[in-house]
């Protein structure tokens, strides 16, 4: 019990008792406590917080705790679930609670504080996407903060009830009342109810004096619009009662009632990479300022959100394969590709203007010419820079930009200079500059050097990119459109970040994904994995800085491969494919564990299993040539790889450079695939850092190495395989995610969504739910077992649903590429036994798109290609050409461009009306008021595939 007030010889301060009461169900070994900003609540030290005690009341379990404090006590606080040693297992989401005692409390009073646990989903509407964009009604009357006072003297039969409710979605100009069963609450007449006062932070409060005889009191909250129309909250009546038998009767009851129970808010959006946008102004590739036109189109179509791919600089190699937007040169710098050179200056000379016009014509191609667009823009930008550099770089606006961004901008500019000087981004080849230091950096960027203007040019480009994207972001916010960014899981191993912060990365490894829907051989993205232990030393400062930077432009973001924050698929850096990897972190199979199971021949199971009959089966009569060039026979009919080709990357190099390559010139691909199969023909992967630890190879039963084992070994390995991949890691991965993800989420107030596709551990979705992370549902990749196609009507609310995404074929291409699958979809999803159309007609698209609009998911977000397929006019291009990425091809060229300009799309009122009808008929929110729309949320009649209403 905490006490307050001095003791000896002086009159003590008035003290009151706080009685906290929270309904919450825990598991065995868990308990609740409160930690807060004041000493009475532990000064944010959870171990010193106020422990709560479980109390059963009827069928509910309440956690209660008492503490004595001074009558003028104020504090911030939160609830925590802890184990027996007071280690935090979870804590409630949202902003810190603010406790201000009701007016008029006197010495000895008991104030009962009845709270609800704040779920992460409850706090979503306080994120910037909603708070600063969708519900930021700048045209409405601003709510003025009002004091909550008590204008009545109390007698012994009076109880003061303070009603507290959060209303983040309240329409500007509305008021909130409590209406209920007794006269003070209007006897269920909303207009006569108790009016609440706005006290800031979306919170509304009011005090009400009730007689003890009036309890229990039933009530509800109600919104009353500026026009006087009441709207009662959903759900059952709320109820407040008091314990009249208690010897220390509560004089005040603070009802912290959580959030107003509105109907679930649902919105819609469009997804398109910036590089895919086509406009009348661009130079062969979409630009940041094009986003303003895209926002206009989104608003006209009823969309509240525009989703982009990553927009960071990826210019690592100076070649077209830098088009891969997930391989960042810098996680802070924006890509110069998206610069609009016409907007660099108001005084561009006539000859440069003519050059821009010629470039527009030259670069106006079907697809993005990455190298030509970037080099043309940089050439033009340098000319304008040389004319206005002193004016711009001496401006107060630029100086402020430099001051706020120098921590990343100066190393980035130096890196770009060294990359171009040494003609490589591989900083291990930079001699004395290979190792970064602040002293070397200051010399590189200092004034007076011959290359100082090169450094300043990179500042100049980043400044203008910042200005142009900021202009687009501000425009989107004013139009009530969320810009949603993308947070890549990795960085290029030859990047500014690995140069400046080498200890944060495991440079001898690569990141990827195990075999899944996208690629049966797994994926190898080539990024080094993260050194989480090192990152934790400054509370993940690098990640926090990334999110802070993103929040300058975006109000929502997608966490790429969120599974990587639970565990990452780690590969050795000499791997070329993604198959033979292991999870990090994970609990390996120890040598002792394997021995206890009767497995002892570790070399046999962990080295490539190559026998003559396997070679003959794989390569036919050519096997002797393969064996002679790539293998050694270490015993009769048993082979091993030669030293110069005993990794996947060495195999690739030898196939291409061997003096004998003329022997397999026409068979190069099949030879490589065959050798990869051989080197991957293992059942256990030995840990390169600890030879006594092993990991089961993914899909080990598919290997001939497994097939030739004895039955006992097979049975043991099957059991250990299942345990490794589906059981023993769950708690470890959950703990790992709960260390890292909350840091990301608390680094900004952006709305976060997680890309949770692939091989999903059981712990992932509960953790995402706990943290308020919105998941992704793609109909052709259902997360439910034994389903070929997802059922949008059964998706949970905390999801984004979409018919396709950038990592798979478009809806049109998917429909047309597999006749059998198309027929199964038509029968099971459409519910028709008829033969489906071979072409993905607008009617088919309408049906599938409407399914997603009607889904319970918070967001329905559609690739622009799928939306344009609603109209025949836009389906003349072959469907496969609209694919953005092929995950099975590590050297895919990311160059898709929409074949119609935004200006033309804005002129097409028909397709905008078609999409808007889908938004409004599904009851989803849309920017602005649409005349004639059904605002009640009732569904309008649907267009069926047979064309009948």
UniProtKB/TrEMBL annotation:
Reactions catalysed, as given in the entry: Transfers a segment of a (1->4)-alpha-D-glucan to a new position in an acceptor, which may be glucose or a (1->4)-alpha-D-glucan
Q: Which GO terms describe its cellular component?
A: cytoplasm
Cite the CBM20 domain residue spans from the record.
10-118, 153-267
Example of a GO MF term: 4-alpha-glucanotransferase activity
Gene3D superfamilies, sorted: Glycosidases (3.20.20.80), Immunoglobulins (2.60.40.10)
Catalytic activity, EC:
2.4.1.25
Q: Do the record's keywords include Acetylation?
A: no
What subcellular locations does the record give? Cytoplasm
In terms of Pfam families, this protein maps to: CBM_20, Glyco_hydro_77
Report the family membership.
Answer: Belongs to the disproportionating enzyme family.
From the Swiss-Prot or TrEMBL record, give the protein name: 4-alpha-glucanotransferase
Instruction: Give the source species.
Output: Urochloa decumbens
């Amino acid at each position: 019990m905490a006490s307050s007030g001095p003791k000896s010889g002086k009159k003590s301060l008035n003290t009151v008792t706080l009685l906290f009461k929270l309904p919450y169900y825990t598991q065995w070994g868990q308990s609740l406590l409160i930690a807060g900003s004041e000493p009475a609540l532990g000064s944010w030290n959870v171990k010193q917080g106020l422990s709560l005690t479980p109390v059963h009341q009827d069928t509910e379990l309440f956690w209660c705790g008492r503490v004595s404090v001074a009558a003028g006590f104020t504090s911030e606080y939160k609830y925590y679930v802890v184990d027996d040693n007071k280690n935090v297992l979870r804590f409630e989401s949202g902003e810190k609670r603010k406790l201000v005692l009701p007016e008029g409390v006197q010495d000895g009073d008991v104030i009962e504080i009845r709270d609800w646990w704040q779920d992460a989903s409850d706090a979503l509407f306080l994120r910037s996407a909603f708070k600063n964009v969708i519900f930021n009604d700048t045209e409405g009357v601003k709510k003025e903060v009002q004091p909550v006072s008590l204008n009545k003297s109390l007698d012994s039969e009076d109880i003061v009830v303070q009603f507290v409710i959060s209303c983040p979605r309240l329409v500007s100009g509305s008021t909130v009342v409590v209406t209920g069963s007794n006269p003070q609450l209007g006897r269920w007449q909303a207009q006569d109810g108790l009016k609440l006062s706005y006290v800031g932070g979306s919170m509304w409060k009011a005090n009400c004096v009730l007689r003890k005889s009036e309890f229990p009191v039933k009530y509800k909250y109600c919104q009353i619009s500026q026009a006087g129309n009441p709207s009662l909250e959903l759900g059952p009546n709320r109820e407040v009662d008091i314990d009249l038998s208690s010897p220390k009767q509560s004089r005040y009851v603070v009802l912290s009632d959580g959030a107003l129970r509105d109907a679930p808010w649902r919105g819609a959006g469009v997804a398109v990479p910036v590089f895919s946008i086509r406009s009348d102004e661009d130079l062969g590739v979409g630009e940041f300022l094009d986003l303003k036109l895209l926002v206009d189109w989104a608003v006209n179509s009823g969309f509240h959100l525009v989703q982009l791919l990553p927009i960071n600089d990826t210019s690592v190699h100076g070649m077209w394969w830098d088009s891969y937007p997930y391989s960042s040169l810098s996680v802070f710098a924006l890509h110069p590709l998206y610069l609009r050179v016409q907007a660099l200056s108001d005084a561009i000379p006539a000859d440069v203007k003519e050059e821009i016009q010629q470039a527009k014509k030259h670069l106006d191609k079907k697809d993005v010419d990455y190298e030509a667009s970037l080099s043309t823009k940089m050439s033009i930008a340098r000319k304008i820079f040389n004319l206005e550099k002193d004016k711009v770089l001496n401006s107060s606006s630029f100086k402020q930009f430099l001051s706020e961004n120098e921590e990343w901008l100066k190393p980035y500019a130096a890196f770009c200079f060294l990359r171009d000087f040494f003609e490589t981004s591989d900083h291990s080849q930079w001699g004395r500059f290979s190792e970064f230091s602040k002293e070397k950096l200051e010399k590189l960027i200092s004034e007076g050097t011959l290359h100082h203007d090169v450094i300043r040019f990179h500042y100049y480009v980043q400044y203008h990119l910042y200005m142009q994207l900021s202009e687009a972001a501000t425009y989107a916010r004013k139009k009530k459109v969320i810009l949603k960014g993308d947070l890549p899981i990795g960085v290029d191993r030859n990047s500014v970040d690995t140069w400046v912060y080498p200890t944060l990365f495991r440079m001898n490894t690569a990141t990827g994904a195990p075999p899944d829907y996208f690629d049966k051989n797994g994926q190898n993205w080539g990024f080094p994995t993260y050194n989480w232990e090192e990152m934790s030393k400054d509370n993940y400062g690098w990640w926090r800085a990334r999110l802070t930077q993103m929040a300058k432009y975006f109000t929502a973001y997608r966490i790429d491969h969120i599974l990587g924050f639970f565990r990452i698929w780690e590969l050795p850096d000499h791997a070329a494919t993604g198959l033979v990897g292991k999870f990090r972190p994970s609990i390996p199979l120890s040598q002792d564990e394997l021995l206890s199971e009767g497995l002892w021949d570790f070399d046999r199971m962990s080295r490539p299993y190559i026998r003559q009959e396997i070679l003959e089966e794989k390569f036919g009569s050519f096997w002797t040539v393969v064996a002679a060039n790539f293998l050694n026979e270490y015993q009769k009919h048993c082979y091993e790889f030669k030293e110069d080709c005993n990794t996947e990357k060495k195999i690739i190099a030898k196939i291409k450079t061997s003096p004998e390559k003329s022997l397999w010139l026409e068979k190069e691909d099949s030879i490589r695939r065959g050798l990869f199969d051989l080197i991957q023909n293992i059942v256990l992967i030995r840990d390169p850092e600890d030879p006594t630890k092993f990991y089961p190879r993914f899909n080990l039963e598919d290997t001939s190495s497994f097939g030739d084992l004895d039955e006992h070994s097979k049975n043991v390995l099957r059991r250990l395989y299942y345990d490794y991949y589906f059981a023993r890691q769950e708690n470890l991965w959950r703990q790992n995610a709960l260390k890292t993800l909350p840091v990301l989420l608390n680094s900004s107030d952006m709305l976060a969504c997680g890309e949770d596709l692939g091989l999903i551990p059981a712990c992932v979705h509960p953790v995402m739910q706990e943290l308020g992370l919105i998941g992704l549902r793609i109909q052709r990749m259902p997360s439910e077992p034994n389903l070929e196609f997802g059922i949008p009507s059964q998706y949970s609310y905390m999801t984004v649903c979409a018919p396709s995404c950038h990592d798979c074929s478009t809806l049109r291409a998917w429909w047309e590429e597999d006749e059998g699958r198309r027929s199964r979809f038509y029968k099971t999803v459409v519910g028709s036994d008829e033969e489906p159309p071979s072409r993905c007609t607008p009617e088919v698209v309408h049906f599938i798109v409407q399914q997603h609009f009607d889904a319970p998911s918070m967001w329905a977000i559609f690739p622009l290609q799928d939306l344009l397929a609603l109209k025949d006019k836009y389906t003349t291009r072959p469907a496969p050409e609209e694919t953005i990425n092929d995950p099975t091809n590590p050297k895919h060229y990311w160059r898709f461009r929409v074949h119609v300009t935004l200006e033309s799309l804005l002129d097409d009122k028909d397709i905008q009306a078609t999409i808007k009808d889908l938004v409004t008929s599904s009851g989803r929110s849309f920017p602005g008021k649409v005349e004639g729309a059904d605002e009640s949320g009732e569904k309008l009649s649907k267009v069926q595939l047979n064309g009948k209403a």
